[in-house]
Design goal:
Blueprint (H helix, E strand, L loop, with lengths): L7 H11 L5 H8 L7 E8 L4 E7 L4 H20 L19 H12 L1 H4 L13 H4 L11 H4 L5 H26 L1
Protein backbone atom coordinates (compact mmCIF):
# COMPACT_ATOMS: atom_id res chain seq x y z
CA UNK A 1 0.00 0.00 0.00
CA UNK A 2 2.96 2.31 0.60
CA UNK A 3 3.91 2.66 -3.04
CA UNK A 4 3.43 5.39 -5.60
CA UNK A 5 2.27 2.72 -8.06
CA UNK A 6 -0.85 0.66 -7.62
CA UNK A 7 -1.13 -3.07 -8.18
CA UNK A 8 1.19 -4.64 -5.60
CA UNK A 9 -1.58 -7.03 -4.53
CA UNK A 10 -2.10 -8.09 -8.15
CA UNK A 11 1.64 -8.73 -8.47
CA UNK A 12 1.46 -10.77 -5.21
CA UNK A 13 -1.43 -12.87 -6.58
CA UNK A 14 0.46 -13.52 -9.83
CA UNK A 15 3.65 -14.33 -7.91
CA UNK A 16 1.81 -16.93 -5.81
CA UNK A 17 0.21 -18.46 -8.90
CA UNK A 18 3.60 -18.94 -10.55
CA UNK A 19 5.45 -19.95 -7.34
CA UNK A 20 2.94 -21.52 -4.93
CA UNK A 21 5.55 -22.58 -2.36
CA UNK A 22 7.17 -19.14 -2.09
CA UNK A 23 6.99 -16.97 1.00
CA UNK A 24 5.83 -13.41 1.40
CA UNK A 25 9.39 -12.44 2.31
CA UNK A 26 10.67 -13.70 -1.06
CA UNK A 27 8.04 -11.65 -2.84
CA UNK A 28 8.79 -8.56 -0.80
CA UNK A 29 12.54 -8.82 -1.42
CA UNK A 30 11.92 -8.95 -5.17
CA UNK A 31 9.28 -6.23 -5.33
CA UNK A 32 9.87 -3.69 -2.60
CA UNK A 33 13.25 -2.55 -3.86
CA UNK A 34 11.51 -1.17 -6.96
CA UNK A 35 8.94 0.91 -5.17
CA UNK A 36 8.72 4.61 -4.36
CA UNK A 37 7.25 5.00 -0.89
CA UNK A 38 4.50 7.53 -0.24
CA UNK A 39 5.28 7.86 3.48
CA UNK A 40 7.65 6.75 6.19
CA UNK A 41 5.96 5.03 9.12
CA UNK A 42 7.46 6.34 12.36
CA UNK A 43 5.02 4.63 14.75
CA UNK A 44 1.83 2.57 14.51
CA UNK A 45 -0.68 0.57 16.50
CA UNK A 46 -3.52 -1.54 15.10
CA UNK A 47 -6.13 -2.06 17.81
CA UNK A 48 -9.21 -4.26 17.38
CA UNK A 49 -11.49 -1.29 16.61
CA UNK A 50 -9.17 1.50 15.43
CA UNK A 51 -5.61 2.22 14.40
CA UNK A 52 -3.04 5.00 14.67
CA UNK A 53 -0.07 5.99 12.54
CA UNK A 54 2.61 8.61 12.73
CA UNK A 55 3.68 9.22 9.16
CA UNK A 56 6.20 11.40 7.38
CA UNK A 57 5.05 12.34 3.91
CA UNK A 58 7.60 11.63 1.15
CA UNK A 59 5.51 12.49 -1.93
CA UNK A 60 2.93 15.13 -2.73
CA UNK A 61 -0.36 14.05 -1.09
CA UNK A 62 1.43 10.91 0.13
CA UNK A 63 -0.39 10.60 3.44
CA UNK A 64 -3.76 11.06 1.78
CA UNK A 65 -2.97 8.44 -0.88
CA UNK A 66 -1.52 5.98 1.67
CA UNK A 67 -4.54 6.23 3.97
CA UNK A 68 -6.92 5.85 1.03
CA UNK A 69 -5.10 2.70 -0.10
CA UNK A 70 -5.12 1.25 3.43
CA UNK A 71 -8.83 1.93 3.93
CA UNK A 72 -9.87 0.69 0.48
CA UNK A 73 -7.66 -2.39 0.59
CA UNK A 74 -8.76 -3.43 4.06
CA UNK A 75 -12.43 -2.80 3.28
CA UNK A 76 -12.20 -4.99 0.18
CA UNK A 77 -10.43 -7.76 2.15
CA UNK A 78 -12.92 -7.58 5.04
CA UNK A 79 -15.98 -7.48 2.79
CA UNK A 80 -14.79 -10.48 0.80
CA UNK A 81 -13.83 -12.47 3.89
CA UNK A 82 -17.16 -11.85 5.65
CA UNK A 83 -19.37 -11.87 2.53
CA UNK A 84 -20.59 -8.32 2.95
CA UNK A 85 -20.67 -5.10 0.94
CA UNK A 86 -20.45 -1.40 1.63
CA UNK A 87 -18.39 0.97 3.71
CA UNK A 88 -16.44 -0.29 6.68
CA UNK A 89 -15.02 2.93 8.14
CA UNK A 90 -17.00 5.86 9.44
CA UNK A 91 -15.98 9.15 7.83
CA UNK A 92 -12.58 10.35 6.66
CA UNK A 93 -9.37 9.73 8.54
CA UNK A 94 -8.34 12.41 11.01
CA UNK A 95 -4.88 13.91 10.99
CA UNK A 96 -2.83 16.63 12.58
CA UNK A 97 0.63 18.01 11.96
CA UNK A 98 3.33 17.41 14.59
CA UNK A 99 5.30 20.64 14.76
CA UNK A 100 8.07 19.97 17.28
CA UNK A 101 10.48 17.10 17.97
CA UNK A 102 9.46 17.03 21.64
CA UNK A 103 5.89 16.41 20.53
CA UNK A 104 7.08 13.68 18.17
CA UNK A 105 8.44 11.67 21.12
CA UNK A 106 5.27 12.02 23.15
CA UNK A 107 2.95 11.22 20.25
CA UNK A 108 5.11 8.31 19.11
CA UNK A 109 4.71 6.78 22.56
CA UNK A 110 0.96 7.45 22.52
CA UNK A 111 0.61 5.76 19.14
CA UNK A 112 2.98 2.80 19.60
CA UNK A 113 1.63 2.08 23.10
CA UNK A 114 -2.02 2.72 22.26
CA UNK A 115 -3.03 -0.85 23.12
CA UNK A 116 -1.78 -0.19 26.64
CA UNK A 117 -3.34 3.28 26.84
CA UNK A 118 -6.71 1.64 26.09
CA UNK A 119 -5.91 -1.27 28.46
CA UNK A 120 -6.16 -3.86 25.67
CA UNK A 121 -2.69 -5.31 26.22
CA UNK A 122 0.70 -4.10 27.44
CA UNK A 123 2.60 -2.67 24.47
CA UNK A 124 5.54 -5.01 25.19
CA UNK A 125 3.21 -7.98 24.56
CA UNK A 126 1.22 -6.52 21.66
CA UNK A 127 2.47 -7.69 18.25
CA UNK A 128 0.46 -5.16 16.20
CA UNK A 129 2.38 -2.06 17.22
CA UNK A 130 5.81 -0.53 16.73
CA UNK A 131 6.79 -0.36 20.41
CA UNK A 132 8.96 -3.51 20.43
CA UNK A 133 10.88 -2.10 17.47
CA UNK A 134 11.36 1.25 19.25
CA UNK A 135 12.93 -0.43 22.28
CA UNK A 136 15.07 -2.78 20.19
CA UNK A 137 13.31 -6.04 21.13
CA UNK A 138 12.28 -6.82 17.54
CA UNK A 139 12.97 -5.59 14.05
CA UNK A 140 10.14 -4.13 12.01
CA UNK A 141 11.13 -3.12 8.48
CA UNK A 142 7.99 -0.98 8.20
CA UNK A 143 9.21 1.45 10.86
CA UNK A 144 11.61 4.33 10.18
CA UNK A 145 12.07 5.77 13.67
CA UNK A 146 15.72 6.88 13.89
CA UNK A 147 14.76 10.54 14.34
CA UNK A 148 12.44 9.69 17.23
CA UNK A 149 14.80 7.16 18.88
CA UNK A 150 17.87 9.40 18.82
CA UNK A 151 16.24 11.58 21.47
CA UNK A 152 17.01 8.80 23.98
CA UNK A 153 20.44 7.55 25.10
CA UNK A 154 19.29 3.92 25.12
CA UNK A 155 16.23 1.69 24.98
CA UNK A 156 15.93 1.66 28.78
CA UNK A 157 15.53 5.43 28.81
CA UNK A 158 12.91 5.19 26.07
CA UNK A 159 11.03 2.49 28.02
CA UNK A 160 11.05 4.64 31.17
CA UNK A 161 9.76 7.63 29.20
CA UNK A 162 7.02 5.39 27.76
CA UNK A 163 5.99 4.12 31.20
CA UNK A 164 5.61 7.65 32.57
CA UNK A 165 3.64 8.83 29.57
CA UNK A 166 1.36 5.79 29.38
CA UNK A 167 0.26 6.46 32.97
CA UNK A 168 -0.46 10.08 32.04
CA UNK A 169 -2.35 9.10 28.88
CA UNK A 170 -4.46 6.57 30.81
CA UNK A 171 -5.35 9.18 33.45
CA UNK A 172 -6.32 11.71 30.77
CA UNK A 173 -8.43 9.07 28.97
CA UNK A 174 -10.18 8.15 32.24
CA UNK A 175 -10.91 11.85 32.91
CA UNK A 176 -12.22 12.26 29.37
CA UNK A 177 -14.42 9.15 29.67
CA UNK A 178 -15.91 10.48 32.93
CA UNK A 179 -16.77 13.81 31.31
CA UNK A 180 -18.63 12.11 28.46
CA UNK A 181 -20.56 9.57 30.60
Amino acid sequence: MNDEKDGLMIRWRNFLASRPNSSANEFLRLNLSKRKELVEIIAYCCNPNHYHFILRQLRDRGIERFMQKIATGYTMYFNEKYHRTGALFQGRFKSSHIKSEGSLSRYSIYVSCNSEVHKICPAKNYPWCSFLHHIGKSRDDLVKDKEFRREFRNSGELEEYAKENITDFQARKQDQDMVFE
